[in-house]
Specification:
heterotrimer; A: Beta Polymerase, domain 2; five-stranded mixed beta sheet; 4 helices; disordered C terminus
Chain lengths: ~160, ~300, ~400
């Protein structure tokens, strides 16, 4: 089975929740999904055994738009299906898909740490990648993250020990 | 003057410590060459000890200080004392009395006991796991090892090391009790926690096992103790099974040969898990020795 | 009650500094006697903020940055990035360059798998195998050095091609090296499948069934040892793999022994492909021109790293630096299986199970920002020096 027909099958499976589709390049299909229906769409893919979750990408393109995107990449052979969920920059949140795909746990924890996207129903401690004393509310992969160190802090006592 | 000489040449004195370092070097070098490595230079074990002795001894919090400092001393003392009853370097034992074999063997176990205690004395998790494993391993190899050394004693009809040695010089027990030799050699490896019986100090799991918290002098003493025990163990096995130790040359050849065997086994084996070690000793080691004992008792009974 | 429960727990920490780990990671194994009852992991000790850093560097600079994500599979990172950017820019890379890319990628796989055999043997306490396999690994390191000038971080890729060519002498040297390695590899396959003591530590240990592997999302040789038919070199041939096909090595036993067998058999496959490439290396250019600014767009680039599927998501906004580069390394997928497998096994098996997935913490921890006090904050050399002096002055 070639990648095109595989993607056609996938598109059919999640048709009910599709807002818009795009084909950015060969062997790929981007499907915009409403955050509320994300779990249902993913459950159908998993139940039907279509591909595997390859990664979750957070995407912050501009501060002005007021939204960020969360991309769920599913792969089957050469075909890549991407479910795109748009979330507001303030109070961003998506549902955890760990209940369906346990392997997503690390990806979701990374997403929360790097983009400040709240993942509803996610297990696990606060930090996976960043230091324990990382400042609250600083999400480094957001475009507006201020990563310069304040002089006082840099020379302060917080780094002792 | 004579006292100074005694200190130097007395079998359990400095010469024994030096012998231990030499044997450690030979072992390390042999294993290294078998593993296609260069291995240490001849003075490396000595350099290690000197360095450790010169270093600060860190006493961790939460330990009983008396035990922490005392255990390495007791361990080395036990090993050195047991040398008094053993024909070290092919010379006659310094002290001897009927039944000294049992005393020597118990003194040799002191090192393992001390290691186990030292591990459980600290609050370090690696040490605690290491201590548990050390003591578990001791319970598994100790009985078979003891029985293999009692085999020659039974044949010789005496429990005096000197007596067994004299008997062994005329009877090559290697031929009559081959299983005994094998089990004794492997038991010695278990005692010294050499690969494949090094799970009590498996570095990829529990760092350095029971001795993880030890540094400086304490570690140096434990290591010296282990080196001394290596020499004594080899001496006992060589004396009992390889036709006795009549002179220093025989001692060198026989213990050297055994050491080569030990190195070979170390190089070709994978570390056994502690449950595998225990299983092996009780399932095969102990049974084999018991079978040999039975055979021995039956044949002795028919001969006499 | 909860605190009491916690007080009674006996936790063995492995890492961040531990002889079992050559890279920093922190695992906590709760043990009951020798049996592990719970496991947790903490990553990020080698977090260098590479994903963020790519956004402020040009497309060309990023090639060198991304190659340094991992010291072992450096070529494959650069390759994934190059393939993605070339796709975005719409350039076609000459076939000779694609063949050379595959050649280096397979040499790198040999070096990585041989390294793994040694490390895994060491974790089991079989140091002799460790020493021998690493000695033989030097052969392939020498070949890579002769070919690219470097033992690691080969820097063979350029956007639009490769910067190295394979001469006849190099080709001969690789042939000779492979003959030697093939002979040795056969020996290692024999040892790992017949040494009874070693098998006691690998056979039936850490068994991952195909269902588990699928549920945990395993990738690479680890997944293929559990009966998962995934290999991007076959599923979605990239670079030159369409011309130099690979046979997938799959076995469904799923224990540690199988992971040895699958990886070692993949070595034979690599030897075969490299010879095939050397025999039929197409003539032609080595590099094609790639514009400084890359057309706006998004692309996904997936390649088969030695440890499994490596996933790059690249987004360009038409400027001379990328808007977002997302790297999902194979270790990220496989790491979760360590925690799942740990429970119920013996503490002594932990290093083996951990290393069984061939973890690469540097790969795993890549993303985000320079450390808080780092260069971004504008520490000058003088400030750093002064900080050091002050720090030690404050010590009792």
């Amino acid at each position: 089975m070639n990648a095109e027909s595989t993607l056609t099958i996938a598109a059919k499976l999640i048709e009910a929740w599709t807002v818009e589709t795009r084909t950015p390049e060969a062997n790929r299909l981007d499907v915009m999904v409403d955050g509320a229906h994300l779990l249902e769409a993913i459950r159908v893919l998993v139940d039907e055994g279509w591909g595997y979750l390859a990664a979750i990408t957070g995407l912050d393109t501009s501060v002005d738009s007021g939204v960020m995107e969360v991309l769920y990449h599913f792969c089957e052979g050469a075909a890549v299906l991407t479910l795109r969920v748009s979330v507001p920059r303030d109070g961003a949140s998506v549902s955890s898909i760990c209940g369906i795909i346990p392997a997503a746990s690390f990806y979701e924890r990374e997403l929360r740490e790097m983009f400040g996207v709240r993942v509803e129903g996610m297990q696990g401690p606060k930090h996976l990648m960043l230091p324990d004393d990382w400042p609250e509310g600083l999400y480094p992969l957001r475009k507006d993250a201020d990563l310069t160190m304040k002089e006082a802090e840099a020379n302060g006592d917080s780094r002792e020990g | 003057m004579s006292e100074l000489l005694a200190l130097l040449f007395f079998p359990a004195g400095l010469s024994l410590l030096a012998g231990g370092l030499v044997y450690e070097w030979v072992d390390r070098k042999l294993v290294a060459r078998l593993q296609n490595r260069m291995g240490p230079r001849w003075y490396q074990p000595l350099a290690d000890i000197v360095k450790l002795l010169a270093k600060e001894e860190v006493i961790p919090t939460g330990v009983n200080k008396l035990l922490f400092v005392g255990l390495p001393i007791a361990a080395l003392a036990g090993a050195l004392t047991s040398a008094l009853y053993v024909p070290m370097f092919g010379l006659a034992p310094s002290f001897s009395f009927p039944g000294d074999l049992i005393v020597a063997l118990y003194l040799l176990s002191l090192l393992t006991l001390c290691t186990g205690l030292a591990g459980s004395n600290t609050t370090n998790t690696f040490s605690l796991v290491g201590a548990t494993r050390t003591l578990t391993q001791m319970f598994s190899y100790e009985a078979p090892f003891l029985l293999t050394l009692l085999g020659p004693a039974l044949a010789a009809g005496t429990w005096q090391i000197g007596g067994i040695d004299a008997y062994a010089q005329n009877h090559l027990l290697l031929l009559t009790q081959p299983i005994g030799l094998l089990v004794a050699l492997i038991g010695l490896m278990g005692k010294l926690e050499l690969s494949p019986f090094d799970s009590p100090e498996a570095e990829t799991e529990i760092v350095a096992g029971a001795l993880t918290e030890y540094s400086g002098r304490g570690l140096a003493l434990f290591r010296l103790g282990k080196n001394v025990e290596l020499v004594i163990g080899l001496t006992l096995v060589a004396s009992f099974y390889l036709g006795g130790l009549a002179n220093p040359l025989e001692f060198l050849l026989k213990t050297g040969g055994l050491l080569l065997g030990l190195s070979l086994i170390q190089a070709v084996m994978t570390r056994l898990r502690i449950d595998q070690t225990v299983g092996m000793w009780w399932r095969y080691g102990a049974l084999l020795v018991l079978a040999q004992w039975l055979l021995l008792i039956v044949t002795q009974g028919t001969v006499s | 009650m909860a605190t009491q429960e916690k007080g009674r727990k006996f936790i063995v920490p492995i890492g961040p500094q531990h002889p079992a780990l050559k890279e920093p990671g922190h695992f906590e194994f709760t043990v009951d006697g020798e049996i592990v009852t719970d496991a947790t992991v903490r990553l990020g000790y080698v977090h260098r903020g590479i994903e963020k850093a790519t956004e402020s560097r040009s497309w060309v600079q990023n090639l060198y940055l991304l190659e340094r994500i991992c010291g072992i599979c450096s070529h494959i990172h650069a390759l994934a990035y190059c393939l993605g950017v070339e796709k975005l820019a719409g350039v076609t890379v000459p076939p000779r360059a694609q063949a050379v890319r595959v050649l280096v990628a397979e040499l790198e796989r040999i070096h990585s798998h041989l390294l793994w055999v040694g490390v895994a043997a060491h974790e089991a306490g079989f140091d002799t195998l460790f020493m021998y396999s690493w000695r033989d690994r030097e052969t392939v390191m020498d070949l890579l050095e002769a070919l690219t000038g470097n033992r690691v971080n080969y820097s063979a890729n350029l956007l639009g091609g490769v910067k190295i060519d394979v001469t006849d002498e190099q080709s001969d040297a690789i042939w000779r090296g492979l003959d030697f390695l093939e002979d040795r590899t056969r020996h290692y396959l024999d040892i790992t499948t017949s040494d009874s003591v070693f098998l006691r530590r690998t056979r039936g240990i850490g068994v991952t069934t195909p269902e588990q592997a699928k549920r945990l999302g395993l990738v690479g040789p680890t997944a293929r040892a559990s009966g998962i038919w995934h290999d991007l070199r076959v599923d979605a041939p990239y670079a030159g793999y369409a011309d130099y096909p690979i046979t997938m090595i799959v076995s469904d036993t799923g224990d540690l022994e199988t992971r040895f067998v699958v990886r070692i058999k993949e070595l034979f496959e690599s030897y075969r492909v490299i010879r095939h490439i050397l025999d039929t290396l197409p003539d032609g250019e080595l590099v094609t021109r790639v514009p400084r600014r890359i057309k706006a767009g998004e692309t996904i680039s997936r390649v088969e790293a030695p440890r499994g599927e490596l996933f790059y998501f690249i987004r360009s906004n038409g400027t001379d630096s990328p808007e977002r580069i997302k790297v999902r390394t194979p270790t990220m997928c496989n790491m979760a299986s360590v925690l799942a497998l740990a429970v119920g096994h013996q503490l002594a098996d932990m290093p083996m199970i951990l290393v069984g997935v061939d973890p690469c913490f540097s790969c795993n921890d890549r993303t985000v920002v320079v450390d808080q006090g780092g260069a971004r904050g504008g520490w000058t050399w003088e400030q750093l020096r002064q900080y050091g002096i002050d720090y030690y002055r404050r010590q009792p």
